[in-house]
């Protein structure tokens, strides 16, 4: 789905797609509503299954999808995103209508299921990986249609948002029932990104734990090489000093990310004269309102905040490498936390809430690459952040562990686990027998 609340799932899928492509597998990406092709390696094929305009109304519109959607996609992506975010509720409306199209009728969006089936036959697909379990009825309908046989595996990351939409439109019971039917229609267990997220799916969506398998997300591991230049950071934040520790938040700037808790925590530490600079970077999925709140809150608290929006991958890596620590103060029950794994892969300690799958990411075989704080508690966040500055032995231990802890989330581990899960060879056969593993992201 490209971006917004579901960017983490998209990054996971595109990372996997790139890994499979580099191993010689044939990979095709089917996009829904929006796309993010910049994350994919050259040579990977892309198809637009449907545009977001399809779900402008409660009933799917072929005309708005094929004609208006195609015309809008002639515009630069940043223009489309900016236009949609002018009214934050519009994305929720599209997603609610998507859920309605899959669950309110006996057949899930029949025209789209036929289109998916046609693409699968045209692309000679053998395996379909579905980014969200919620889209399972669509995959099941395509599988049941006549034509070339294929199988699908469902993945869960962010499906609680879809379940919430189903509840708001009175379809939660139907949603749960049909989602479980979709799971039963696959020969493989569905993939979830953490142990905690399995528990959440079982509780919130009422999926049987016997139908779920944990495969952690993978991130590119950074070699122990010379740190990236500080120059691009200085260009973005001219007042930022390289000799003063940087406390970094990097991620979406939306209310569920709890960035205001970080501001309160830094203010609570102000009287202790701890040298630190606060940097906040990241896109938004729901418009600029929360970012404006953060700006005003920082001013009210008397904090110097170095604040920016989306940053490039190179600048992101430079920020990770030059930061003293990365804070991930989410008030949501996060399924995983790619930012946390990425930061640790640079040897940078992290602070995370003790709630959700993100708490699993900082630990491995008795080692920790960061600390937990009590969720929603800015006072405890301040205490744990203070420890990183005032307990040098602890800080060195966490920094020394960070890369090793992050290593279990390397891309090869994820790729091997998924291939093994669906019964494909980790190393594809030769050119005479090309393996086929198209992905839907």
From TrEMBL:
Protein source organism: Duganella aceris
Gene3D superfamilies per UniProt: Glycogen Phosphorylase B
Domain annotation Glycosyl transferase family: ranges: 241-404
Phylogenetic classification of the source organism: Bacteria, Pseudomonadati, Pseudomonadota, Betaproteobacteria, Burkholderiales
CDD domains: GT4_PimA-like
Protein's name in the database: Glycosyltransferase family 4 protein
Pfam families on file: Glyco_transf_4, Glycos_transf_1
Residue stretches making up the Glycosyltransferase subfamily 4-like N-terminal domain: 43-220
